[in-house]
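quick q for whoever's on today - can somebody do inverse folding on this one?? i tried earlier but teh output was garbage lol. tokens:
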């Protein structure tokens, strides 16, 4: 995601953060380039190293109280130094702004925005919005569902039957997150969250039927807006000469935005109940998350049986 204009930031958060513009249209085209939030107390006190001027600056009663204790000349000098760093905007949360602060901000083209929220709540909501906006993201072709609580991303070539499989899963009580286009966003550096574009959200294209609205047909319980992706199912047309994994010992991985996910490949041919296979794969993945791997456990038992001394097995 690129830089965020102050204008869009204000419009997106006007209600949730209870914002109002103090400097009018001044500085609304300034760019916020990071999800960090500045608390300028140390800067105003004279320590100006490591100050990031490309992010939102939050002014609270603490910083406001500090400025009020300075002499008029010293206060003006420190405010000017802060504004000269070309910070995109200042959000005022409870600070009493010194006389002349607004005029100086307008002169340096720095937007001042007031919030009615208490500082702690403002910081939490502000951080959440900025982290979401600046999170790395990508879009892929596929279908995302919540199957037994496991975020299951179904991928494969066009026409292999992804949407038909997803429709069968929805009929069985599982929930659709996105069809055709899946938007993936990296959160907290390690969690992949998937969702669908708002314009086509909760719609599905079925060849022969056209576009259907899953929410209208199956109800609100059949959909989710977003879901953490925990496994990938690759669907492909059955290839008679290809060796497919029969034991489940092959640990395939696929990587999105630097995060690796377990992947299984399901060959598709007429008569195969692919939806059931996806259900079993999701349940098996839940067992693996809880520490139980059926394939490895069986292999271990077989190895132990093979290595038993002769005559140690009791005969019935």
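ok took a stab at it. sequence:
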């Amino acid at each position: 995601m690129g830089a965020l204009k102050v204008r869009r930031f204000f419009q997106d958060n006007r209600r949730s953060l209870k914002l109002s513009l103090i400097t009018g249209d001044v500085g609304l085209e300034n760019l916020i380039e990071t999800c960090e939030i500045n608390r300028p107390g140390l800067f105003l006190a004279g320590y100006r190293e490591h100050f990031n001027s490309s992010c939102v600056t939050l002014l609270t009663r603490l910083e406001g109280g500090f400025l009020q204790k300075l002499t008029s000349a010293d206060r003006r000098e420190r405010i000017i130094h802060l504004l000269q760093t070309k910070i995109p905007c200042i959000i005022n949360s409870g600070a009493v702004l010194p006389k002349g602060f607004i005029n100086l901000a307008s002169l340096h083209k720095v937007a001042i925005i007031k919030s009615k929220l208490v500082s702690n709540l403002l910081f939490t909501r502000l951080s959440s919005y900025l982290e979401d906006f600046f999170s790395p993201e990508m879009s892929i072709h596929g279908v995302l569902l919540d199957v037994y609580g496991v975020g299951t991303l179904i991928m494969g070539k066009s026409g292999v039957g992804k949407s038909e499989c997803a429709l069968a899963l929805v009929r069985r009580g599982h929930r659709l997150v996105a069809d055709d286009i899946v938007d993936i966003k990296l959160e907290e550096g390690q969690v992949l969250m998937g969702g669908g574009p708002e314009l086509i959200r909760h719609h599905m294209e079925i060849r022969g039927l056209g576009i259907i609205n899953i929410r209208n047909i199956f109800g609100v319980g059949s959909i989710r807006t977003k879901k953490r992706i925990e496994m990938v199912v690759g669907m492909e047309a059955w290839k008679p000469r290809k060796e497919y994994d029969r034991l489940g010992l092959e640990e395939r991985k696929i990587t999105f935005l630097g995060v690796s996910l377990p992947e299984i490949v399901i060959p598709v041919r007429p008569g195969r109940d692919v939806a059931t296979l996806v259900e079993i794969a999701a349940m098996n993945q839940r067992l693996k998350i809880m520490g139980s791997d059926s394939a490895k456990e069986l292999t271990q038992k077989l190895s132990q049986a093979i290595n038993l001394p002769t005559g140690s097995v009791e005969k019935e």
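fwiw The longest strand covers residues 175-187. also The chain has ten helices and 17 strands. so keep that in mind when u check it
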